[in-house]
Every structure is written in structure tokens, then in C-alpha cells.
Design a protein that fits this description.
about 350 residues, alpha/beta, 7-stranded mixed sheet, 6-stranded parallel sheet, binds zinc ion
Length: about 350
């Protein structure tokens, strides 16, 4: 079968022929129907070096996957060949306290995971291939009626990651509240839809690109602001001087973190989901009182079930452009150049 492999750090991926996987006991092979191209893959190709993460190339890219059950290993029950499914992407040890409640991204025994601290497309083989080996059937989530693999694939990360981050702020997103989404890319545009579908907050989007602001408005943002020196003041003005109850920073660079802290409300949340690597000085006089600042990484398996429900009901619809596997490299190039709207989904 064909697979888009990352051969090493600081290298371009290559499409090569590899053996089709066969499932061992408890495992499942999925025929890929859609594999989302994530911005974090660009960091894997260009920025990471040995030691940055606890796993290493070579592996097949693609950590946002959905398709159809192709083959079941011995002992797997409750799934049928041909059934449409999503693949839960973060693969932990399966038995620690976190994994037991479906929070594999925060696995506390990563040495026992298929790829320590990673998953399919992140150290282990991912879904940018004709087939993907899923090492444990618990990572398979059946798709609800009305959701096909192409639409489901981006929901497993570009949907699940902002969903998890937003869900933990739900108690603060009451009527009269404001949520700000910084960075309207693959995660951000879905985050806007999730905020509109699950909360009463007014949604403000911030980006440096006009096209992204138009996408934000299509997704239901109440206000879309071009990022600049006065953006924090604009947000304060739009909120009667109070500031935003949730800042969802999908970039995570120094300037966006500073903007978030300047535009946040007291007792608000500043949640960093973008892996831009920035830092924010935090001290008694530098951020609003009781502002909670946190990073989040991906989401839980129960939350994926909830996101897929939002997708099946049309409440959350990632904007996606499909590409054949042969053009996956082109899709990544467009993503790097900033000419890609929403998500690229590779369809083998
Ligand atoms: Zn991702
Ligand atoms: Zn674990």
C-alpha cells in the first residue's frame, strides 16, 4: 500500500510503498477514508530535532483519521468490517488513571504506550496511507449516522482539541460573556463553531489575515478583528471595558499571549492550544485578578464522541478541501504558505 512517511527530523515526507498491516490480537486495521493535514505536522517536518519529543521518525504521517473497519484482530468484538469509524489519535498505555477515563493525552505511563507520548502519525504509523493499524480497539469510535469519514477526520483533532479547551470553560461562558479566538486556522475556525453551538458567549475572532476573518464570520463570529496594536483595546471596548471571559489562543506565540493577557477579564480563562512556543510573564501586577492560564493538549475519548455528535448534526462543520494522497505534500506547502483555507483532508 502507499504511505506518506516522514523519514527523519528536518526532512520532507515521501510517498512510498510499504506492506499492508495485519491486525494482531485486540488490534484493528482501518481503511482510510480521510486523513487531516494538521499544522503541527509542519513543525514535525521542519522544526523538531531529536529529543524534542520522546518518539522519533520514521513513521507514517496523519493523526486525524477516519475510515472503515477493514480487518479485526483476534478477540475484537463489537465492531464489524465495513463499519465507518473515527480513530482516536492520542494513544496512551491504556491502564493508568488517565487512560482509564479516556484521557490518553495525559497518560502517566508513556513508556508503555505504542509511541511514548504520541500516537498514530506521531511516532507510530498514522493515516496518510491506504490503511492504518490501530494498536487497540478502544481507539476506534463508530461514526454516528450522517457523518462520513472525510468530514469526521478533522473532528478528531481540529475539532476535539478546541472542544476540550472550550468545554472546560463552559461554566464561565454564560449569557453576557465573551470568548475570543486568536488565530482562525484549522483549529480556530472549528473553535468558533463549537463556541456558537455549545455556549451563549459572544464570539470575537482575531487574525492577521483578511481571508481568515471572512472565514471567522462564515463560522458565526460576532466580531472579527484584524490583529494590530489596538486589538486589546478593541476587545475591551466591545465588552463594555470588562474583557473576555475566555481567550482561546490557537497560536501560542509571544504577541498572541500578550494580547490574551491584555484582553482577558478578571476570573477569566486564558487557554493556550497553539504550539507557537511563546511565553507570558505572570505576576501579581501583570495579569487580571484570578485569570487562569493553562495549556491543553488534545481531548478525551468521551469528548470525541460528543464532537462527532456535533458534526453529525451539522452544528460543527470543519471547512475542508480534499486532496489525493499524491498531493499531500502540495497541501502541506499551501498550509505553510498560508494559502490554505480551513483544513486539508487527504483522501487516499
Ligand atoms: Zn494536530
Ligand atoms: Zn496511560
Amino acid at each position: 500500500m502507499r504511505a506518506l512517511r516522514l523519514p527523519g527530523w528536518k526532512s520532507e515526507p515521501e510517498l512510498i510503498e510499504v506492506d499492508e498491516p495485519t491486525p494482531g490480537p485486540g488490534q484493528v486495521v482501518v481503511k482510510i477514508g480521510g486523513a487531516g493535514a494538521c499544522h503541527s505536522d509542519l513543525h514535525l517536518m521542519h522544526d523538531f530535532e531529536a529529543g524534542a519529543v520522546p518518539w522519533n521518525p520514521p513513521f507514517t504521517l496523519g493523526h486525524e483519521n477516519a475510515g472503515w473497519v477493514h480487518a479485526l484482530g483476534a478477540g475484537v468484538t463489537g465492531l464489524e468490517v465495513g463499519q465507518s469509524v473515527a480513530v482516536y489519535g492520542p494513544w496512551g498505555c491504556g491502564t493508568c488513571a488517565r487512560c482509564r477515563v479516556g484521557v490518553d493525552p495525559y497518560c502517566e505511563n508513556i513508556a508503555a504506550a505504542p509511541a511514548p507520548g504520541g500516537g498514530g502519525g506521531l511516532g507510530a504509523d498514522g493515516g496518510m496511507a491506504d490503511y492504518q493499524l490501530v494498536p487497540d480497539a478502544r481507539h476506534i469510535v463508530p461514526l454516528p449516522d450522517g457523518l462520513d469519514p472525510v468530514r469526521a477526520a478533522p473532528l478528531t483533532d481540529a475539532g476535539l482539541t478546541p472542544y476540550h479547551a472550550i468545554r472546560r470553560s463552559w461554566p464561565k461562558l454564560v449569557p453576557g460573556s465573551t470568548a475570543v479566538v486568536i488565530g482562525v486556522g484549522g483549529l480556530g475556525h472549528v473553535g468558533i463553531q463549537i463556541l456558537k453551538a455549545t455556549t451563549a458567549a459572544r464570539v470575537v475572532a482575531v487574525d492577521t489575515r483578511d481571508a481568515a476573518l471572512r472565514l471567522a464570520e462564515e463560522c458565526g463570529a460576532d466580531l472579527a478583528l484584524l490583529s494590530g496594536a489596538g486589538t486589546a483595546d478593541d476587545i475591551r471596548r466591545a465588552t463594555g471595558g470588562r474583557g473576555a471571559d475566555l481567550i482561546l489562543d490557537c497560536v501560542g506565540a509571544d504577541p498572541t499571549l500578550a494580547l490574551g493577557a491584555a484582553a482577558a477579564r478578571t476570573v477569566g480563562d486564558l487557554t493556550i492550544v497553539g504550539i507557537g512556543g511563546g511565553t507570558l510573564p505572570v505576576g501579581f501586577f501583570s495579569v487580571p485578578y484570578e485569570l487562569s492560564i493553562q495549556t491543553t493538549y488534545w481531548g478525551s475519548r468521551p469528548e470525541l464522541v460528543e464532537v462527532l455528535d456535533l458534526g453529525a448534526r451539522g452544528l460543527v462543520r470543519p471547512k475542508a478541501t480534499t486532496y489525493p494522497l499524491e498531493e499531500a505534500v502540495t497541501a502541506y506547502r499551501q498550509m505553510r504558505d498560508g494559502t490554505l483555507d480551513g483544513r486539508a483532508v487527504i483522501v487516499p
